[in-house]
Write a structure and sequence with these properties.
Number of strands: 0
Structural class: mainly alpha
Number of helices: 6
Helix content: over 70%
Number of domains: 1
Distance between the termini: 16 Å
Strand content: under 5%
Largest sheet: none
CATH topology: Four Helix Bundle (Hemerythrin (Met), subunit A)
Radius of gyration: 14 Å
Shape: globular
CATH class: Mainly Alpha
Length: 132
């Protein structure tokens, strides 16, 4: 489902300022870190939106979209992942659309819609790591 190297995932997360955590992390851990960073960015974007902080909202939404596009979606292995990878790519595309619309419309409910579809995937990923 995800590529074994996850270079894009590692690069995106490194750019978030956590080099020491990324170095030596397993591919599973890298994806988990991306899910965690995505959740944090979406929560920060909601807070900024509610405060009317346009600059911070834009920064956080930009981070969230990059995590989805350059990290999670880019790490999918379409050949090995088959239908699951295709479904995840569609879910990530949907989330990117909702986040982008949330930014344009200043609509917290659209950010929450993205969070609601990503949360079960992130939770499943977290639980897989606990049983491995």
């Amino acid at each position: 489902m995800y590529t074994s190297l996850n270079r894009n995932a590692a690069n995106v997360y490194k750019q978030m300022g956590v080099q020491s955590v990324v170095d030596g992390a397993s591919p599973h851990t890298l994806i988990q870190l991306l899910f965690d960073a995505l959740e944090a960015s979406l929560n920060a974007a909601k807070g900024a939106m509610q405060r009317g902080d346009v600059d911070e909202k834009g920064r956080q939404i930009g981070k969230a979209v990059r995590i989805l596009e350059e990290g999670l979606k880019a790490a999918l292995n379409q050949e090995q992942g088959g239908e699951i990878a295709q479904n995840l790519a569609s879910l990530y595309d949907y989330s990117i659309t909702q986040i982008t619309l949330a930014n344009l419309r200043n609509d917290v409910s659209l950010l929450e819609a993205a969070q609601n579809v990503i949360a079960p995937v992130a939770q499943g990923w977290r639980e897989m790591g606990q049983t491995a």
